[in-house]
# Entry
Amino acid sequence: MPGLLKDFGLYEARREHDACGIGAVVNIFGKKDHSIIEYGKEIILNLHHRGAAGADETTGDGAGILFQIPHEFFVNESKGLGFSLPGPSEYGVGMIFGSRERKLREQCEKILETAVGHYGLNVFGWRDVPTSNDCLGKIALAAEPNIRQIFIDGNGYKDEELERRLYLIRKRSETLVREQFGEAGQDFYVTSLSSKTICYKGMFFAWQLFAYYPDLSDERVTSALAIVHQRYSTNTLPNWRLAQPFRCIAHNGEINTLSGNRNWMRARETTMTSDVFGDDLKDLMPILTDEMSDSACFDSALELLVRSGRSMPHSMMMMIPEAFGPKYHISTDKRAFYEYHAAIMEPWDGPAAMVFTDGRLIGGTLDRNGLRPSRYLVTTDGLAIVASEAGVIDFPVEKIRSKGRLRPGHMFLVDTVEGRIITDNEIKSKIARQKPYRRWLDENRSELRG
# Structure
């Protein structure tokens, strides 16, 4: 897959930065409809100015959309592919970028299928994703992968247990492909593999995303939520796999502490244990790889925390803590939470705005300095929008119930099952009281004084 960065002369690929456009839209009550996909399209088209063009002026740095798996759509599609799908959340769908060299692609797909069997699941079948590449620029076309979807039987596993097995399958297959094919194996990339969400992305301008994937214009493709991203790569080359959203997040900004975050994660891999993963933990190594961007590294670390048993808001609080020093006015419970977790996970600092989802919860958060803006809007008919700027969807004034901006370190969260917006104070207070963090600190903390 052309476009992957390499060190050259004085240039270091790790010193990459970006500033992009992000957006999320959700039906607060969890009602699935194709209109959510259309709202996502409107958001990303209005974020077109946030993207960058390649030298051919028709290749974008990247655009994508992440949304809930459209069950009815895939049920109908599977009938023509010779297999039948079980109920919602009882199977997984993977979006796979593969090599255009047929032999290499088939070998990588075989490794993925073997990993599926290793974790006790079965492959229903594959689907060639319809694409229309006449909208692509020359650079994007030269790097265009083969794109297929894999459908995996959950074999009775559901919800988080199924998500965990799909996560292990993806990581194991990525490692085996990398070991067997080296640099050539970089053409194999699992964009998403989940029973809850799916991601369509590529090296596009905003308008090319929906032109390239006819699926996104199909009325049967429905969701209650969507995250979109328009990429602007200031110090890196565009690449199909580095387009966003990733599996959990879309990111606007940069992680300035990336080198330290990578080194700390690499150091803790040797002592990492997990009651949830047990001996399977070895298949997750390495957690981060050198070809990942700062956003991809953040997404991978977040995914590890979530699949290990923490909620997504809990994990986001660990990685992007709000300012909690003695001079800041926050509750003692929240301060204890942040102090305790500071010994477990270093902050991923930098000017950053994030939108995130686990397929049920969707939200946005800012870094503790608030150096990237994020705006939200709630309508009278139950829609919530979070984006890197205001005006990404044009609503009549009478339909707007409330609007505002995220404060530094704060979180905006929607639970589509409970059908409500959860305030920053409520979600963080609840998480901070789940365990006796203050007592644990009092009993175990040792302070070194100069």
